[in-house]
Amino acid sequence: LLRCVGYKIIMETAGVFPSGELETAEGKEPGQSIYGGGEKESVNTLREKPRRCPSAELELRKEAFCMGMQMGFRWYGEGNDDIKLSDIKQIPGVTSIVWALHSKLPGEIWEVDEIAEVQKQLEPYGFNMDVVESVNVHDDIKIGLPTRDQYIENYKQTLRNLAPFGVKVVTYNFMPIFDWTRTDLFHPVGDGSTALYYEAAKIKQDPREMADYVMSFTEKYHMTFPGWEPERMAKLDELFEKYKGVTKEKLWANFKYFLEAIMPTCHECDIKMAVHMDDPPWDIFGLPRLFTDAAAVDYFLKLVDDPYNCLTLCSGSLNANPDNNVADIVRKHTGRIAFAHIRNVKHFPNGDFSEAAHRDCCGDTGILDILKAYHDAGWEGYIRPDHGRHLWGEGPGTVRPGYGLYDRALGVMYMLGVWDTLESEA
Ligand code: DNO
């Protein structure tokens, strides 16, 4: 085990060995995570190091070390997700549970004891809680109201409360009012499964219609969807009113204000902020959207040029516009992608799109190219299968749209299969 150079860094991060107890890996300070901030060790260096780490109980961490990236799986929490941690444990290669306190409204402080409760649930399975998705940003921050400063203070406190639990990445979005937007949550794919679907013609109409449709699932199945909090949706007209006058330029300016305010705390806490791409990547219902293409990503990374200001590069969100080439963004901004969402999308000529299985040829997103781009760039970060289809009896009431167990598990295996092949050829 001692010979497994570099591996110790992860052990320390995991709290398995206290910092400094083992020989220091070349070029690394004791306790410094290969995933955390500061100087990064290239994955190519890691690949040259011994791959055999014999300790069985540390298997998960070993896999992460050997691969240069960590495989995550989104989980909605005890009592809030039909999928069990014991189910996820059986998917080979998953090391991170991508989690959140889903009962929290945007702007509320996440308390230490609430976070500790999640840690207690994950610990027996050996999963880490390095990635939070999402700590949602209050609308007043996006709109730029005077009340934003208090909400920013709350956000900073949440980051401080998360840091001692080893959280390294916080995903969030900066979309006005709506998070992801779809017109059909369980659309037949044609093979007996269903998937999320976007019918372009429907979105041009009344936002209330779409909100009511999504909320009908909440009412019927007592299931809330992140970004679609009933409390916010109940005030939809008021929210639209407040966003009047928030142009794209103002939204960028409010975004910059927020990021500049929290960056010092991110440094202090060693937590990377990883913004999610807009989904879909175009304006909807007259609301501006920022993360629409590669130029917007370039602009954002320069706007606040800080290594803690990062991306959650969601392949399927961006590629809902077929002109967006996600692999190019991976190659250009490797070091600023803290978290990768792998989602496949199939486009239709009328502007509709359907979500698809992760296998490259099942959609148009270029999953193979994207994985290859991550691999070949020596990327280190967290990755997860994003939306899957609903399979084998999964449907409304049993799973959250896009977040069934089976297709995401197949997605993990596909991604790891591609990755292993690339590794063996490297
Ligand atoms: C959809 C997710 C998004 C994402 C948020 C991040 O399933 O990818 O809802 O979690 O936009 O804040």
Quickly list its features.
single chain; about 425 residues; alpha/beta; 4-stranded antiparallel β-sheet; disordered N terminus
Provide a descriptive summary of the structure in words.
With 426 residues, this protein is an alpha/beta fold. It contains 17 helices and twelve strands. Helices cover 38% and strands 14% of the residues. A hairpin with a 5-residue loop joins β5 and β6. It starts with 6 loop residues before the first helix and ends with a helix. The structure holds D-mannose (DNO). The site of D-mannose (DNO) has 15 residues, from β4.
In short:
This protein is of the alpha/beta class and 426 residues long. It is built from 17 helices and twelve strands.
SSE inventory with pairings:
Elements: H1 7-13, H2 43-48, H3 59-67, E1 69-74, H4 85-89, E2 94-98, H5 112-122, E3 131-133, H6 139-143, H7 148-162, E4 169-172, E5 184-188, E6 194-198, H8 200-203, H9 207-221, H10 230-233, H11 236-243, H12 248-269, E7 272-276, H13 294-303, E8 309-314, H14 315-318, H15 326-332, E9 337-342, E10 344-347, E11 353-356, H16 367-376, E12 381-385, H17 406-425
Parallel strand pairs: 1-2, 1-12, 3-4, 4-7, 7-8, 8-9, 9-12
Antiparallel strand pairs: 5-6, 6-11, 10-11
Helix pairs in contact: 7-12, 15-16, 16-17
The structure holds D-mannose.
Residues 133-134, 171-173, 179-180, 226-227, 276, 314, 341, 386-387, 402 line the site of D-mannose.
